[in-house]
Amino acid sequence: MDGLKAQLEELWPLVMGVGLNVLWALLALLVTWIAAKIVARGVNRLSERGIDETLIPVLETLAVWGTYVVGGLVVLDIFGANTTSLVALLGAAGLAVGLALKDTLACIAAGFVLLGLRPFRVGETIQFGSIIGTVRKIGLFTTELDTPDGLRISAPNDKVWGETLTNFTRNSSRRIEIIASIAYGDDIETGMNVLRTLVANDSRILADPEPTYAVRALADSSVNLHLRAWAKTDEYWDVYWDLMKKLKPALEAEGLTIPFPQRELHIVDTAQKKLVKDAQGEVSG
């Protein structure tokens, strides 16, 4: 018993030391978790100070993970780990992992390029390749979009940056193009006046740039009249659909017709033609 008591007395300082380290480590983890929450909220409030909403998710991710890394180093330091050597080891490991995950790092690099150059922002409608949608989030790895038919797409950033980007909503105005086909027997100027009347009756069409009217083409079955007008980007489709809806009744009200494609077919009876030719040959003989 005396020997056991002596061993316990020798171990007690060690147990107390380890216990205190564990308590300090748990406290450090709790503080780190609370600090990460506070940092995340602080970053989210940056949008109220004029910071672009596009940058908020990435800044939040970097700030939170940075807080966790600092907290982890503090915990390791509590247990007496050589953090300097550990940082060097993590650097070497990071290099090896980076070589193995070069495609993932390409996505991260493309994400920073997108955030830096800002060819699009959250809420804008873009197209790259065959994909079109409204941007919902730009992350370190992927860009999330909602397609016009309600699908959510997560596209790797390197794929987004590697394609030609079309931004439909960056500019404040957008040009509308309408083609009106009339028959060759119709009066061209009457058709032009129909287009001018449609434009004059829609207050959403901008006066500057001024609308233009022209004969687009003398097609196979019709004369194609061309209207180019400008509208605000957020009203583009409403104006376009209204013009298309009103175009046919307006043309018909002026006695103009929208012709169908036409072809003339000449049918020749080759057998009868041969008999006529033979008969003509006998007469001449």
TrEMBL record:
It is found in: Cell inner membrane; Cell membrane. Residues 66-102 form the Mechanosensitive ion channel transmembrane helices 2/3 domain. Pfam families: MS_channel_1st, MS_channel_1st_1, MS_channel_2nd, MS_channel_3rd. It is a multi-pass membrane protein. It comes from the Bacteria. Keywords: Cell inner membrane, Cell membrane, Ion channel, Ion transport, Membrane, Transmembrane, Transmembrane helix, Transport. Belongs to the MscS (TC 1.A.23) family. Mechanosensitive channel that participates in the regulation of osmotic pressure changes within the cell, opening in response to stretch forces in the membrane lipid bilayer, without the need for other proteins. Contributes to normal resistance to hypoosmotic shock. Forms an ion channel of 1.0 nanosiemens conductance with a slight preference for anions. PANTHER family: SMALL-CONDUCTANCE MECHANOSENSITIVE CHANNEL. Homoheptamer. This is Small-conductance mechanosensitive channel. It comes from Microbulbifer harenosus.
